[in-house]
User: Fold this.
Amino acid sequence: MGLLPIILKYEWEGLPVTRAPNEALIVIDVQNDFCSGGALAVPDGEAVVAGINTVMDEFSCVVLTQDWHPAGHSSFASSHGGRAPYDLIDMPYGAQVLWPDHCVQASRGGAFHADLNDARADLIIRKGTNPLIDSYSAFFENDKTTPTGLEGYLRTRGIQKLTMVGLATDFCVNFSAVDAARLGFDVRVDLDLCRGIDLDGSLAAALAGMKEAGVQVDG
Assistant:
């Protein structure tokens, strides 16, 4: 049986599924705090929403990720006396950028952008829930060993090829794509449906790193 019941369901509903059943769309962190007016707004972040909604219908498997921090998370500058947003500190798991408080659990900032078709998701992965460690990647926390469970889900679904879109290109999209390639997935990042922060050259470094890891970068 495999994925056949899922594929037939979407075809019966008239959705134009054009991708193979072993392909998935991974939509990274399209949340209010990463869009205009948000606590950690990515320039032009909301511009990706309409295009992501359109491309969702090409895929039989759609996964959304959601930054979901408890209040007082250790990655927030406000949790470290005398520190400012974007300072870099050493944590037990390595270097950590300190961020403005953002995507706090159950807050408006943590919610998906209102125009995003989140009802189309087969799975929502919430990350950054451990107060002691940040999680950029959809696959691992920032210690690079603690899994989110996404890999197991994709393997169970028979997914081998991933297209990644969302926010921000140089952080959560980048880390997710590199981890996916390291795990053996065939990974493509659609830059037309991503936006970056570009913190001290982070965007150029991320693009180079993704290509070096074997990620196909288009757009």
In short: Confidence is low (pLDDT under 50) at residues 1-12. The first helix runs from residue 4 to 12. The chain has one domain: 23-70+110-217.
